[in-house]
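I'll show an entry:

:::
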Amino acid sequence: MGELASALHEKAVEFDDIVKSGRTHLQDAVPVRLGQEFGGYAKAVERDAARICQAAEGLRRLGIGGTATGTGLNAHPEYPVRMVRKLSELTGLELYESDDRFESMQSMADAAHFSSTLRVLAVTLTRIANDFRLLASGPSTGLDELRLPPVQPGSSIMPGKVNPVLAEMLNMTMFHVQGDDLTISLAAQAGQLELNVMMPIIAHNLFESMQVIIGSLRAFTEKCVRGLKANREKAEGWLAKNAIIITALNPSSATPPGLPW
């Protein structure tokens, strides 16, 4: 995520002198700099990364030693602390004992919380990929404000066509992550009484989601974001045709007489 946010920030700086037509409700709106749009994308990814790191802290808490129901029956009194210490050594992670093994045996809320932050990232990335597809649409009959790097032949019957395949890839992989999260949510609520027996599918889907996110973000960053170009002529051309630009010419200090602000 850090590499993607960094690449988006670089494009925000590169595109900051391109003033274009903003759009709300997919209709013409007041002007915005293309760099501001990309700065918003970068900040959204950074905020999602912070949420993920915060949620990951709950996964460090281990209920090991609770045995069947959380009582620790038939487990050596030193087993939990020694096991957590050994797992920390083997993994290089900072792990610690649960402060309530009954809760840890019953509840998969920590895993569900972590998964939900991956889902939020998937929502953000889907939105960004959709924007890329819109901004790169055309070129003759669409917005054509972005030029995405070609990564494969566009069509056997339409030579020169550049399809937004990396953005489409990101859409598909993020749909997959959101599906994984739904499974984890269902499994987390499917535990009964003293033990949630759905932990295997929860662990499987968490690892799968992380693997999918890592691979797709690496490809999207390196093969799409870093190589994309702005079409200044088209972006500024759309702005010149936008009648709503007059709103930006209204002096901010002008207050009509008789109004309370």
Summary: The helical segments are 2-14, 34-56, 79-91, 101-106, 109-135, 165-188, 199-225, 232-240. The chain has two domains: 2-18+43-59+103-231, 64-97.
